[in-house]
Amino acid sequence: MSKSEFDIIKRYFQRANNAADGVIIGIGDDCAILDIPVGQQLAVTTDSLVCGVHFFEDVDAYRLGYKSLAVNLSDLAAMGATAKWVSLAITLPEIDEPWLAEFCRGFFTLADKYNVQLVGGDTTKGPLSITVSAKGLVPSGKALTRYNAKNNDIICVSGPLGDGAVGLALKLEELSLTNRQPFIDALEFTEPRLLLGSQLINYASSCIDISDGLSQDLSHILKQSQCHADIHLETLPLSDALKKQIELKNLSLLQAWQFAVTGGDDYELLFTIPREKLTQLKENLRVIGLTCFEIGTIKVLDDVSAIDSKKSLIPSITFTHLQQPIDLNIDGWDHFK
After folding, report:
1. Taken in order 267, 272, 273, 278, is the CA torsion positive or negative?
2. What residues form DSSP beta bridges with 241?
3. Which of 51, 52, 100, 190 could form a disulfide with 70 if both were Cys (CB 3.0 to 4.6 A apart)?
């Protein structure tokens, strides 16, 4: 028996509305109606994942469902928002019910973890693609942005860098390693740093999530804040799995740094913080089982006359190892290159 679009929505995507979570009208009408509490602002982000561009055709459906939501929740985390609601538009080449069941299982596993309600969307026929719009709440005037980094702020990241990029290189057969799975998992299972983001709103001066690579995403902060950065490569956090590959000489330290600096798909938070606030932040994070890693410093030119008054400052990143300059290729991911 063939299934219609509405059968699919009802079976796989429709859940009971939860007014306690601000859902006045959810799936089943032309629009969702959501209740925004007094003193809160709405944060909205949208990402599209296209087969052959953002994920491989043979990707596990459960993992794809999980990651399609995770990358959006990561954007909310970068703004310090609490995730609340999500819309999903999915284009399917055909109705494959076992695939859909696994996709939804992955999607709702993460949604339930963070109490996120699916409130609307669309299903159409065509090449496989997934578009998610996530909505969250942030206290009025407290949202983290990319444009407030200040001179001598400390640059921090929330966790290990480079594993997702190694995983992609393995999938593309550009690299061969003895233990692939930790890196494939890092690529396909993204964990949004929502709890950390909510803590940063009282401490960080700027924030972004690392989706296109440390260097490229840091450059967005530097351009918006009109400043430069010094990054100390010896402080970059690397996972135990990546360190093991270095020990086995399957990768050089320089290669590992290259993956950590330019590889996308980390989805760790990259933030700047005044030096005097860092100790208190670390103590607060320790209490809730989180941490962060200092990797560099923000620098602002003292001589403002060095900046062409008709042009914005072109931000630069200096990489050093034990105070010695190191040259790295810092091109991150760009959809149109």
Report:
1. positive
2. none
3. 190
Is it the case that residue 305 has pLDDT exceeding 50?
Answer: no
Strand partners, 48: 131
For the chain, what percent of residues have pLDDT higher than 90?
A: 73
Q: CATH topology for 5-139?
A: 60s Ribosomal Protein L30; Chain: A; (3.30.1330)
Q: Which residues contact 156 (CB under 8 A, 6 or more apart)?
A: 270, 271, 272, 273, 278, 292, 293, 294, 295
pLDDT digits (tens, 9 = 90+) for 198-250: 999 999 999 999 999 999 999 999 999 999 999 999 999 999 999 999 999 99
Residue ranges covered by each domain of the chain: 5-139, 154-325
Instruction: Establish whether domains 5-139 and 154-325 are of one fold.
Output: no
Structural fold of domain 154-325:
Phosphoribosyl-aminoimidazole Synthetase; Chain A, domain 2 (3.90.650)
Amino acid at 296: G
